[in-house]
Structures are given as structure tokens and as C-alpha cells.
Amino acid sequence: MFFIGLDDTDSFESRGTGHVAREIAAALAVDCPVMGVTRHQLLKDPRVPCTKNNSSAAILLGVNGDVEPELLLGRVRALMMEAYQPGSDPGLCVAHKVPADVTSFGYRAKRQLVKQEEARSLAAAHSILLLGLGGDESGVIGALAAVGLAAGGDDGRYPLVGRSRELLGLRSVSELLAAGISAVQTIDGQPVTEGLVHSDKLRPARRGGRPVLVVEWAEDHWLPVKLD
């Protein structure tokens, strides 16, 4: 698995980083299996410059270690530059093996201010590719955090996994599983195997390294619960 982190690709007039990540994932899917795109919420604080919600994105690429990380970095960099927005401060991170220190960095970026220098130093210490692609390059913080959080397997949610975005209306649990969601469960962790689920704009959580849809009962069907 390769983890590709993106952050701060947008401006106030453009689509968000999640949209850019999905477009890049679609381009990569021509040659490599894409296991999903995840969204990770970072610190919301007036001291953090961001366009909207200070979230970053990761693309989960199901390829083996024979792929050259530098070549993958170059390809994604070119795609990001095609989508570059003046005034943005994009960052890009590509990693195959993600140590616990990087996941811990991601969790700290959710709770406290972290500096660009720390992100760069941490990436260098673990030979992780990290690039700033414009502006003040502060997007390297969120890009590295996204890689760490996605690799940790228990943070964020999937704006894209399998065919989940194709589902609409009330669908059976079996249809959701066939579309690429690994499990459906209640907030307290009880498995859901029967009933209909409201499937517009599904955003399953990344838990245990897989897409898990958390739901709650509403009269005669299940409603998805959106988790960060």
C-alpha cells in the first residue's frame, strides 16, 4: 500500500482538496488499484490559516513496494500542478512504509499547532517524500498528517471507496457490502446485517484499516452517522 497525502490545494473560489484527491485517484486508477480516498480533520483554530475546514486527504493506492516512490511522486505532483490554484499552499507526501511516529504526528496535528519545520524534519528522518508545491508550502503539514492518520487506520472517513458514491436512496446492507464497504455497524459497535440504509452521500469511517459505515436507526431504516 502507498499512502499519498495532499493538503491546501484549494482557494476560496475553487473546489476543495477532497475533490482534487478524487480526480487524481481516478487518474491513478488507470494503472493501479485505488483502495479509497480518505478525509482527515485537523485542528480547527483561528491561528491555523485554511480555506474552509482544515481537512487534508489521502489516496490509498494498492500497489507493492516494486513501484518507485519518486516516480509516483512525480506523477502526482504533475497532476496537482495541473489543478494548482493561485493563493494556495499545497503540500504532497508519498510513503510506502509509515512509522508510528508519523501517525502520532497526525494525531497531534488534530489537537495542537505543529510547525512546517517539524513535518519536514520527521519526513526526512524516515525517508518519506514530502514536497511543498507553492505559496508558503504550509500544506506539507497536512499532507504528512494525512499519510500518518490514513496509515494508522483509525481516523477519518472515506469520501470515495469502491462504488459507494454511486449508491442512492434506500439500499440493503448486502448492496453496500458489494459496493466496497467492509462492514455496517451501530455507534456502539454492534454489527448490522439486515434492513435498508439511506445511501445518499455515504461517507464510511476508516476504522481498523477498512471502510466501516456507522449507522443509527430512524423509524424504518438506518441513517449513516458521519464521523471524523
List the helices and strands and how they pair.
Blueprint: E1 2-7, H1 17-28, E2 34-41, E3 55-61, H2 69-82, E4 91-95, H3 100-111, H4 116-125, E5 129-132, H5 139-152, E6 157-160, E7 170-172, H6 173-178, E8 183-186, E9 196-198, E10 205-207, E11 210-218, E12 221-224
Parallel strand pairs: 8-11
Antiparallel strand pairs: 1-3, 1-4, 2-3, 2-6, 4-5, 7-9, 10-11, 11-12
Keywords:
alpha+beta; Alpha-Beta Plaits; 6 helices; single chain; four-stranded mixed sheet; six-stranded antiparallel sheet; 228 residues; 2 domains
Describe this structure in words.
The protein is an alpha+beta fold and 228 residues long. It folds into 2 domains: 2-155, 2-Layer Sandwich (Alpha-Beta Plaits); 161-224, no CATH class. The protein is built from 6 helices and 12 strands. It has helices at residues 17-28, 69-82, 100-111, 116-125, 139-152, 173-178; strands at residues 2-7, 34-41, 55-61, 91-95, 129-132, 157-160, 170-172, 183-186, 196-198, 205-207, 210-218, 221-224. The strands form 3 sheets. A 6-stranded antiparallel sheet has the order 5-4-1-3-2-6, sandwiched between helices. Strands 8, 10, 11 and 12 form a 4-stranded mixed sheet that branches. Helix 4 packs across helix 5 (139-152). The longest helix has 14 residues, at 69-82. It is globular.
